[in-house]
Amino acid sequence: MNLSQAKRAGEVLSVIFDERLVKKAQGYSRLFAFWPEAVRKNGIAAAADHSRIKELDRGILLIEADHPGWKQILQTKQSQLLNDFRYHFPEENICGISLILSRDVPQTDAPEPAQEVKEVPPVKEAAPYHETENMCKSTHGYESIKNEEFKATLKRLEQSIATSGKQ
Length: 167
Hints:
- The protein is mainly alpha-helical and about 170 residues long.
- The chain contains six helices and three strands.
- The longest helix is centred in the N-terminal third of the chain and has 31 residues, at about 5-35.
- The two termini are about 40 Å apart.
């Protein structure tokens, strides 16, 4: 291959990669822009003003809500929203939705009314997705199984699955 052929090949590759990046960026843009339509379609149009797609990470769509009430409302429609995103964006391989509360609570100029302060125990914050991805795995629970033979069979099956998954 001479220099001019290498230069043309480089230009072709550059165009191909640039097109891929542009298509990927357009896909993400469409995904993020779809949020208001998705919540409207599922009967909670007002949620678009109180929530947003924060990111898509390893197939998990991270949705941020500005108030616990909106987060709870979105949870009631979570499976329908997931189905809509899977249908409209199959190329993104979306496998779940995670709802979080925004840390950026909007500030108002009006002072809040004085309220009696009660001692509230701290709430444990949910672990990020990367720390919880294995939480759905079996927690064993063999102690509730009375039939020892069946319990042993289940343990062997679990071990077999665990071993085959590591290969």
